[in-house]
Amino acid sequence: MIRDRVTPDRVIRTVLPAEVPDIVALHARARATYYPDGPPQDGTDWTASWRTAVARPDGRVLCVVEAGRIIGLASFRTPEDAPADSVKLFQFHVDPGHWRRGVGAALHTACVEEWQADGRRAAVLDVHVDNRRAQGFYRRQGWVPEPVGPGDHHLLMRFALPARAPGE
């Protein structure tokens, strides 16, 4: 179980089921920033998807709360077809009004700490090819992109988890 990470301004903790409407709204605001023609209307029921993610016993959804409001979130788990020592970051969003304030870096650090505590050695994620801002963020955190093929809409990135120091 994640330990709450408290600073004078922020808490990073597990999302509560009652907070799903808040994270759906944050997710929509964040996605709107990297689709030039607006997010695709592919019929996805994001409320149902986030309810499932929050309820999964084999996954985790973390959030950053500041002044009582969720301003960042991350969803991750080990996919069924992946090695047990790996994890996939399925969603990672910071409310656009809070970019460049260290929210994403703090949330990323919390994810890495969780992954290390769970014995993970590697992580992967997919990021939209048009989301250059997010790609830059992930690169600064140590993620490495895989080559993109013609017509690919997502870029696969990999992260080798640093070894934990003895006693951590």
Give a verbal description of the structure.
There is one protein chain. Helix 1 packs across helix 2. Helices cover 28% and strands 29% of the residues. The chain has a single domain (5-160), classed as 3-Layer(aba) Sandwich (Aminopeptidase). The chain contains four helices and eight strands, in the order E-E-H-H-E-E-E-H-E-H-E-E. The two termini are 16 Å apart. An eight-stranded mixed beta sheet has the order 1-2-3-4-5-6-8-7, sandwiched between helices. The protein is α+β, with helices and mostly antiparallel strands. The mean pLDDT is 88.
Number of helices in the DSSP assignment: 4
Instruction: Classify the secondary structure makeup into a structural class.
Output: alpha+beta
The total count of strands amounts to 8
Q: Count the domains.
A: 1
CATH class: Alpha Beta
Give the H and E element order.
Answer: EEHHEEEHEHEE
**What order do the strands of the largest sheet run in, or round the barrel if closed?**
1-2-3-4-5-6-8-7
Strand content: 25-35%
- What would the CATH topology be? Aminopeptidase
Question: What is the helix fraction of residues, given as a range?
Answer: 25-40%
Mean pLDDT: 88
Question: Largest sheet, if any?
Answer: 8 strands, mixed
Distance between the termini: 16 Å
Task: Quickly give the CATH architecture.
Answer: 3-Layer(aba) Sandwich
What is the CATH H-level superfamily? Gcn5-related N-acetyltransferase (GNAT)
